[in-house]
Amino acid sequence: MTAATKAAVTESRTGVTVQLLDLHRQYAQVRALDGLTLEMAPGELVALLGPSGCGKTTALRALAGLDEADSGQILVDGRDITHVPANKRDMGMVFQAYSLFPNMTARENVAYGLRLRGVDEADRRRRAEEMLELVGLRAQGGRYPYQLSGGQQQRIALARALAIQPKVLLLDEPLSALDAKVRRSLRDEIRRIQLMVGTTTLFVTHDQEEALAMADRVGVMSAGRLEQIGPPAELYDRPRTRFVAEFVGLTNRVGGIAQGATVNVLGQEVPLLDGSAGPGPVAALVRPESVRLQADSAGDARVVAISFLGSLCRAQVQLPSGELVGAQLSAAESAGLAVGAPVQVRVLPAPVFAVPRDPAA
Fold first, then answer.
1. So where are the chain's domains?
2. pTM recorded for the entire structure
């Protein structure tokens, strides 16, 4: 990137506060938003994560002005835009579908929003060139969408959204149509660009890895409500509700006995997170990386499956109780393990969330 382009991008920083206050939205019998409140700091990237139908896309559409909440308030930079039309909200959007005009070149697609705003041709071209360089596609500016890969088309869509210097950038499942390798590369690129431009960004996804890798904060939604929002590490390590504990990341449900602030799991006393079930029999939600295996001819658990994932290995073992427990190990730690081998199983004393044990278990 040239110094001139970098300077132009830096000067265009437009981070603003965004507040969604007690939003409600009902579709027939479905409560899409149920008192959603979310506040975003200037320049922050917040990801809304959750299963289909949880309300995350409805929240984004309400902010964009593509859908209107039944009640509540939306403030951007302190200004109430609750009833402002979508075309007056100064939002940039990137959708799952690339939504490029097939009869326009990449450069013309990027400049399209500027043309609608009456920007003169020289400034349109300059800004389009800056955005193409920002996304690494300046050399492809004269190509048409059919001449670009899916990842390149989505970069053009991002450049188009940023060209108008929006107050807020909205990303609606922008990577889900791409293959895994391109998706990983492009998520890093989007994050780099967002940090450089400094635009406050709301990112909607059902992909946990994307949300945890890209966002400053992740909000987990369920049934129209925000279950928990926080930095990715906090959300993963210290879930506050059963839904978050079970939804985010891989977990084992291991029987244990809760007493006071701890639970006994496989002979190890482990701290309990606030909100856990107990006292008495519970199922502790133990992360695979907190499970340790040791090959031992006298071990009372058996390895039933092993998956090698490059530098990592995932093993599944069966306990004497019949419970299946997954472990995530380094390649070195997994050396010597084989299907059918006896092992000793222990858990690290990392805090866990406990839920009521299934009576049938």
1. 3-237, 250-356
2. 0.88
